[in-house]
Amino acid sequence: MKDSVGFLINDTARLYRRTLDGNIRDLGMTSLQWRTVARLRREPGMRQSELADLLEVEPITLSRMIDRLADAGMVCRKPDPNDRRAWNLYLTDKTDGLIRQLEIEAKRVEDRALGGLNEAEREQLAGLVERVRANLSRKESIDA
Asked: Cα dist. 38→9, 12, 27, 33, 76 in Å?
C-alpha cells in the first residue's frame, strides 16, 4: 500500500520537528519556542491571541511559554495602544545571539532532510510544497 501525500507530509513534518527539537535542546529551546521567536522576529508587536492562532496552540499554553521567555529576558509584553486588555509581544536584544544559533541548527536539519537532493530538486520541492500550502491557505480563508 502506498502512503498518501498527506500522510507523507505530516509524518515528514513530525520527524523534522523531532530532529530539530533534538538539535536545539542544548540551547534550552523547543521547536515551539523557536517557532514563537521566529514569528515574533518576522512580525514584532503581534498580540498573544493572534500568535496562538498562528502557532495552533491554546492561548494558555502560549501564555505560559511567553511567561518563561519573558522571565529569561527574551520577550517583553507591551500594552496594545488600541486595546487596554491586549498585550503586544516583542523580542529583546537578548535573543539576537540565540536566533543565530537556532538558524544554524535549523540549517543543519534542513541539510540533513534534503540530503541527496541537488539544488534544482530542492528548489522544485520547495516550490511544490509552497503551492500545496497556498492551496490549503486559500481553502481555509474560503471556509472561515
From this structure: 22, 21, 15, 8, 15
Residue 62: name the closest of 79, 43, 44, 75 by CA: 75
Distance, in Å, from the CA atom of 14 to the CA atom of 107, rounded to the nearest integer, reads: 17
pLDDT level of residue 34 (50, 70, 90 thresholds) = confident
What distance in Å separates the CA atoms of residue 25 and residue 22, rounded to the nearest whole number?
5
CB 78 within 8 A of CB 70: no
What pLDDT, in 10s, does the model give residues 90-135?
A: 999 999 888 899 899 999 999 999 999 999 999 999 999 999 989 9
CATH number for the domain that contains residue 67:
1.10.10.10
Q: Whole-model pTM?
A: 0.74
Which structural domain, as residue segments, surrounds residue 109?
5-113
- Residue 127 domain-assigned? no
- Which pLDDT score is estimated for 29? 86
Indicate the number of domains in the chain.
1
On whether residue 144 sits in a domain, the answer given is no
CA distance 51 to 118: 35
